[in-house]
């Protein structure tokens, strides 16, 4: 209930800004693009978070609670995880290429622009979604549930939030829900990776690994998808490589996510870091 109240409060506060922006952008782009309304909603939510955490949970350092501390280690962990996400997507599509399930298409003349766009999208989506799901929401769930229950509830809400679509589309792409659930679990474990520092700070965790991993995956997949770098050869059924070209909805992608889950679980439970 506390989570619902928090989100509803953000929506009410953002309506005077978000609603006019929505109608303006919808009319200006003939309905092709509506991004400023959700951005304004998120900005109101983000600006209200410190007051919420101070007022509801009596947190003296709200941004620390949300995973923003240890600046140098935050960025280092973010960069390593971002690179890990890019390499992971590269290995996934590289394996498809080696098996003859996809062919490589050289990038077009707009590759520079798409690289920049993909970087902005990856960094932005990684930071925004991780602040919401593994920053605030995970903290709220951990106040009322065990760490294991909070992990699965967080991953379930993350998957549902990304799978809201008509029933026919849900039935056609249902493996994607499992992929989103596994991604959510991996990102919670990434959020719980301890950041080694001075001996008294060794249990500290930050949002950097989760935001970096999420951002790297989005950036790399953006290049493959928008740049049309890889094209399926149809040598195997679509459910192997990904229904609709989405690796989250394919057997190979689910196997790839299993590896990411295993890695993040292993690092987040490394006793050399948490003892």
Q: Biggest sheet: strands side by side, in what order?
A: 1-2
| Separation, N- and C-terminal Cα atoms | 35 Å
Structural class: mainly alpha
Q: Tell me what portion of residues adopts beta-strand conformation.
A: under 5%
**pLDDT < 50 stretches:** none
Strand/helix succession: HHHHEHHHHHEHHH
Please estimate the helix content: over 70%
The Rg value, from CA coordinates, equals 20 Å
Q: Quick one: how many beta strands?
A: 2
The largest sheet, given as strand count, sense and whether it forms a barrel, is: 2 strands, antiparallel
Pfam family, one: Rce1-like
Keywords: Hydrolase, Membrane, Metalloprotease, Protease, Transmembrane, Transmembrane helix
InterPro entries: Rce1/LyrA-like_dom (IPR003675)
Organism: Leptolyngbya iicbica LK
